């Protein structure tokens, strides 16, 4: 049950590569479908979720943590999906939403700017300058989105297992290279990575339950033990503890709960 | 035959993986040992060349002498690369070999925690201090590549493939390179060989001129050369004829065009417009 995430800029042929990989491996190809699932599961208009996943947070968003609330739900929907099926995900931020799972092969697809511009010119019948401006705006928006929510740049190659420049060898060859990498035993699901996935699923459920009232609380689950990390007053942290105790009764898979105040959270906390 | 340029954020990794690739694919390995020959020719210690390549020559890194040494290294590397079937690492070739379709550019990123562990072992520093030291080295090198070549070597778009060696093993890197070297786009063509020869001629000319004219750039197209040089209006005709006189004696040089530019900024913009890294 390997998962392949494909990150790409607009018109970088990433979608074609993702579809090719999914077809070749017999996996489900997923992108905006996750937004629809999140919308159905949590009763939020899909347009609002899509906007939250695409636009960088405004000042009002940051004050109200609106994006964190939607992203937590999208992440939860995505994790639930990968727990069921083999997937190739080429939607937003797969590499950060699933970052710490070892059976996730994280790919970044790059293409030369002139090829991307040409694709927009052909599709939209606009001038090259307009097309280049459009691509730059989209790239900038995604960069700001990832930076503001996760503190990383999507272009940073260290976030991925493999970065491929498709301008040099085309979609078919990229598909072949990715499929061969996905079959490597290092990316196969193991007992440990299955456990990590189950833990992540529980952590995501808890996060969704907490995020409206306590958007800044980060949650980690290890073998059913939930640890919440927060920077808040003693009174507020008691509230978090009470809420977690309540959740442990209603959610499956929680054995114990703990709240750590003013302690830096581990990288796998959600 | 395809050539491969390997670079990494970790020099140990770069120098470990490149000979393996060369051996597995039956290609010639071109590594830091080349610096000994260049050092002998230039009459400088090999250590100094290494420092120029790593950007560890001082706080204000760019000096004309460093530019000359770097240019000598480039000439030596490009001379070997024109023979095809070469795996090069540790010589900064990924920074100055551009737009040559039969050269595969590979970047390998090592596991950061593993690098810190090795640095702790080697230096006895605390993990926090070792991480800080590595970050400082990274920043210094970034400054160096930006200043000399106008590129950020951490930018993935400079490469054809970037591997993160956290879960992926070096053996897989070799397999991928084997596949890539069979792809049609990476086969040597008359045009791509000519691009490499143009780079070589341009760097040879630059090596010839640098001592006398520290601020210039050269573009070669076959035997035709275009040189842009910074000089004052008063010296213009003297400089132009001096450059023509020196360059015309060199092998492979036919027509020479020299353009005098009034300021360093104008020269830099001119080079940028033509997609030429400032040091080449």
Number of DSSP helices of chain B? 11
Order of helices and strands of chain B: EHEHHHEHEHHEHHEEHEH
What's the alpha carbon Rg of chain A, rounded to whole Å? 19 Å
* Cα end-to-end separation of chain B: 25 Å
Distance between the termini of chain A: 22 Å
Biggest pleated sheet of chain A: 5 strands, parallel
Total strands of chain A: 8
- How would you state the average pLDDT of chain B, rounded? 87
Estimate percent helicity of chain A.
55-70%
Task: Characterise this structure.
The complex is a heterodimer of chains A (270) and B (280). By secondary structure, chain A is of the alpha/beta class. Helices cover 56% and strands 15% of the residues of chain A. Chain A has 11 helices and 8 strands. Chain A has helices spanning 14-25, 33-42, 46-54, 59-64, 66-84, 94-97, 113-124, 128-150, 166-182, 191-211, 234-250, and strands at 3-8, 28-30, 87-89, 104-110, 162-165, 218-222, 225-230, 256-261. In chain A, the strands form 2 sheets. Chain A has a 5-stranded parallel β-sheet, covered by helices on one side. The model of chain B has no long low-confidence stretch (mean pLDDT 87). In chain B, 52% of the residues lie in helices and 16% in strands. By secondary structure, chain B is of the alpha/beta class. The radius of gyration of chain B is 20 Å and the shape is globular. The two termini of chain B are 25 Å apart. In chain B, helix 1 (11-25) crosses helix 8, helix 2 packs across helix 4 and helix 4 packs antiparallel against helix 9 (190-209). In chain B, 38% of the residues are buried. In chain B, a hairpin with a 2-residue loop joins strand 6 and strand 7 (224-230). Chain B has helices at 11-25, 34-42, 46-54, 64-81, 93-96, 112-123, 127-149, 170-182, 190-209, 236-248, 264-273, and strands spanning 3-8, 28-30, 86-89, 103-110, 161-165, 216-221, 224-230, 256-261. Chain A binds chain B through residues 102, 108, 110, 112, 155-158, 160-165, 168-170, 173, 176-177, 180-181, 184, 186-187, and chain B through 101, 107, 109, 112, 154-157, 159-164, 166-169, 172, 175-176, 179-180, 183, 185-186.
């Amino acid at each position: 049950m390997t998962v392949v995430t494909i990150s790409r800029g607009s018109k970088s042929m990433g979608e074609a590569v993702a579809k090719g990989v999914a077809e070749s491996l017999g996996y489900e190809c997923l992108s905006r479908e996750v937004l629809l699932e999140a919308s159905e599961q949590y009763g939020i208009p899909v347009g609002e979720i899509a906007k939250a996943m695409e636009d960088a947070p405004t000042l009002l968003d940051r004050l109200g943590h609106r994006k964190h609330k939607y992203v937590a739900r999208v992440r939860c929907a995505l994790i639930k999906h990968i727990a069921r099926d083999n997937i190739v995900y080429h939607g937003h931020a797969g590499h950060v939403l699933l970052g710490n799972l070892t059976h996730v092969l994280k790919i970044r697809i790059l293409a030369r700017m002139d090829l991307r511009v040409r694709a927009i010119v052909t599709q939209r019948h606009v001038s090259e300058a307009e097309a280049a401006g459009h691509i730059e705006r989209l790239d900038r928006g995604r960069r700001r989105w990832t930076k503001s929510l996760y503190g990383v740049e999507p272009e940073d190659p260290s976030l991925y297992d493999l970065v491929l420049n498709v301008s040099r060898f085309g979609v078919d060859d990229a598909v072949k290279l990715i499929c061969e990498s996905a079959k490597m035993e290092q990316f196969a699901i193991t007992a440990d990575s299955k456990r990590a996935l189950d833990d992540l699923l529980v952590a995501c459920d808890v996060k969704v339950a907490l995020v409206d009232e306590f958007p800044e609380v980060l949650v980690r689950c290890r073998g059913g033990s939930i640890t919440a990390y927060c920077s808040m007053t003693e009174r507020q942290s008691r509230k978090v503890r009470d809420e977690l105790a309540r959740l442990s009764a209603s959610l499956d898979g929680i054995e114990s709960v703990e709240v750590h105040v003013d302690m830096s959270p581990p990288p796998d906390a959600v | 035959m395809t050539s491969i340029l390997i670079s990494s954020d970790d020099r140990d990794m770069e120098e470990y993986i490149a000979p393996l690739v060369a051996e597995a694919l039956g290609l010639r390995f071109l590594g830091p040992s080349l610096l000994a020959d260049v050092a002998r020719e230039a009459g400088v210690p090999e250590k100094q060349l290494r420092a120029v390549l790593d950007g560890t020559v001082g706080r204000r890194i760019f000096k004309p002498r460093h530019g000359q040494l770097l240019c000598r290294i480039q000439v030596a590397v490009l001379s070997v690369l024109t023979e095809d079937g070469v795996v090069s690492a540790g010589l900064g070739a990924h920074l100055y070999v551009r737009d040559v379709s039969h050269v595969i550019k590979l970047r390998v990123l090592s596991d950061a925690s593993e690098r810190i562990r090795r640095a702790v072992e080697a230096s006895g520093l605390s993990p926090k201090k070792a991480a800080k030291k590595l970050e400082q080295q990274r920043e210094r090198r970034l400054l160096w590549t930006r200043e000399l070549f106008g590129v950020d070597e951490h930018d993935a778009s400079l490469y054809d493939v970037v591997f993160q060696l956290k879960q992926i093993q070096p053996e897989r890197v070799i397999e991928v390179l084997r596949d890539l070297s069979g792809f049609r786009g990476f086969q040597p063509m008359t045009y791509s060989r000519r691009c490499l020869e143009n780079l070589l001629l341009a760097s040879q000319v630059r090596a010839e001129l640098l001592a006398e004219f520290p601020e210039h750039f050269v573009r070669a197209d076959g035997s035709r050369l275009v040189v842009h040089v910074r000089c004052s209006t008063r010296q213009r005709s003297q400089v132009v004829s001096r450059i023509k006189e020196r360059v015309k004696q060199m092998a492979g040089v036919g027509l020479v065009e020299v353009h005098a530019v009034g300021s360093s900024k104008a020269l830099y913009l001119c080079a940028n417009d033509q997609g030429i890294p400032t040091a080449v």
